[in-house]
Specification:
Four Helix Bundle (Hemerythrin (Met), subunit A); 4-stranded antiparallel β-sheet; 3 domains; 15 strands; 16 helices; Rossmann fold
Length: about 475
Amino acid sequence: MYMLKFYNSLSNKLEEFIPLENNTVKMYVCGPTVYDKAHLGHARCYITWDVLYRYLKFLGFNATYCRNVTDVDDKILKKADSQGVLPEVITKEFYESFSNSMKSLNCLRPDVEPRATKSIGDMIAMIKKLIEKGFAYTVEGDVYFEVQKYKKYGQLSKQPLDDLMAGARVETDDKKKSPLDFALWKKDEKHGYKSPWGLGRPGWHIECSAMSKKFLGDRIDIHAGGADLTFPHHENELAQSECANGCKFVNFWLHNGFVTINKEKMSKSLNNFLTIDDLMKKYDSNTIRFFILTNHYRMPVEFNDEALSSAAAGAKRLISSTCNYVKTQNIDPETVDAFKEAMNDDLNTSKALAVLFSLVDKIKKTANKQEIELYVSTLITLGEVLGFNFSTVKKEINENELREIILPLYNIFQIDSAIKPAEAIERIILIRKHARDNKDWSKSDLIRDELDKCGIILKDSKEGTTWQVK
């Protein structure tokens, strides 16, 4: 069988994946800092690792997926102070928003989702060990990791220590022994927690090291996240974990590429980011997932409406091919082998999609019912490994059934009962368009709500508004 291989960011090589413990896989992914809404960059990251998790389980591994929630952070405290509320108010709102976004993208929940604020004691214990071992020092209530004590620092980001020192900017903070030293604990008398060093809060990097150790142990198989986290976050995680635990921290470091808009990395500082909520107003989860998976996870993805429209067509072709059929236990072994060959090659989802479309072609070319059922079952089984949601597929609906669905709308919008149901829906959409043109947003929203009650979903785009039955 074609062996499972991943591109390891630590070695910069494609390596065969062999778990540390028999069939068990321990996987950690850096989760969100919950101070704002999740955006397309988050979608790219968490859909990618959702697929990895699904595929490991498909292969029969006993996989444990841990993804943290950073709920103590400078950005959270700044927003809380500016709004005059407790930090918990901010984190509750945006954790719920993030969870809803992940659900809307059909991402599976991690097996473990620890919050930083619930693991403060574990962070303090790890910092104490680093001090005891001589890798960290205290200064006026702060604690810093002494980078020069760890000679392999820079191995993940491929930045030698001497080069990092030469390029380090001069800082006004003269408390640190070196500008490269990073905070393990920050003095904070307003929002702080009790510690041996006084009131304070953890640095960002120690949070993930402590939570990974707490829930997965000293060594893990896979640590994944966005490429933007390679340095300094993952570099610092690696250094402090190996120094504290006295062993290799991670076997495989995996990083997904950026999402770009107009060739620039999507970021809030450039004000070119798109929230998942905004995307879901125009596109469904299958479209967004298709868009992301047509590109290899390590490569940058250029976002534009044309690419999403193309993805929408591709996802529709994939999903609609299963219409009027149900999934059975029978699957085509040859197709499964081809799918595994693609996915085993560093999660080549683009090639895996091509395998799925070969099934679509087979479904269309055969009139044999047994063959169709076999291909449909295989398509759904493998499509679900990639996280596509086939529950959205509806059987073909005839005119009488559609009329029954939208019957209340005839009365609400005073439409002649002789008008065909599809035409009636188009007339209602036209009424909504006039309301939008006149900036009558309340009427526009009311019309959308009435359609939604009857199971009619609208999709707005530059080309106009389309509709479909739930």
